[in-house]
Amino acid sequence: MSPEQPNSKGELRPETPQIGIRFVAMLGLTAVIFLLAAAHPASIRAAWAEIERIIQLKSAPLPASPARLSEHESEALDSMTPQKQAQLLLERAINHYDGAIELIDLRVGGWYGQLKLDPEFNGLLDAAINSNDLRVRAASIEIYLAAYNLPKNSESALSLLDRIEQDPQWRPFGLWMLGALANRGVEPERLQTALFDRLHDPDENTRRWTVEGIALLGTNASIEPLLDTFHNDTSPAVRERAACGLAQSGMLTKEQRMTAVPEILKFTDDPALDHATQTWAFQALRDITGASIGNDPAAWRAWLSGHSQN
Fold first, then answer.
1. What is the per-residue DSSP string for 6-31?
2. Angle, vertex CA 285, rays to CA 280 and CA 288, nearest 5
3. Could you tell me which residue, 275 or 7, shows the higher pLDDT?
4. Number of H-type helices and E-type strands within the chain
5. Fold topology of 154-308
6. pTM score, whole prediction
7. How far is CA 57 from CA 23, 51, 61, 96, 138, in A?
8. What is the sign of the dihedral through the CA atoms of 52, 57, 60 and 61?
9. Is the pLDDT reported for residue 23 higher than 60?
10. Domain ranges, ordered by start, for the chain
């Protein structure tokens, strides 16, 4: 029974507790417990011990079982459709199962043109591209390329570049895929340059998806353009996405993100920036460093000074 039920008028009302009946029942249960405790003290202690084993959410991580694919799952893969293979292995990769990413790498070549991005699969891919493990993010990119039937070759890169020029409505998706292809080693310099050239496009949505594509590159060269966009783009939405690309999303490593910290720190009290952008700068600093410092530029400078000496 849910805490609230509809009344005769269809309105929600709290459930009425039946105090008398429950009180009598509780007294009876208490009496039974005392009688059992007297007769079987060891059994009662064991029962309470089980109750005390309720898992607390504040505890350290507690594995439910070894994080590896079962023999049954591994043997069953060959009999599954590509869709089922991809979904199973991606779910296991998200949960850090040993061997799952390696099996994706081994099998993804056979999934091209055979995957359907239904809501369930999209949910898994969204979780994977935001994983705290860059290997899982890379695996999701590989699967995206397979789902959209974009082989990792120069022909795919040229096809994307051409369609971006010819089809404005398709351009946002194409820009994201440019970053995906470049990250997987396809024409990286050429595609990176194509993305950088779009950063000053007059269309806000184009600039936003250019930023998303640049965040996928994972290159040292991508950091400066993201910083410039974070500080100078006229659109709050584009600035916010550049901040996310530097702080958390995309394919930059933590070490690469740390190189952006001194410049982001300058943004926190830059009078040329609005309050929202300064707030995003503080959030980016916390995301990158893991430090629990508030919106105090002086405190952040002291933190950075101390860590720069280590």
1. E-TTS-EEEPPP-HHHHHHHHHHHHH
2. 120
3. 275
4. 17, 2
5. Leucine-rich Repeat Variant (1.25.10)
6. 0.80
7. 31, 15, 9, 20, 30
8. positive
9. no
10. 76-147, 154-308
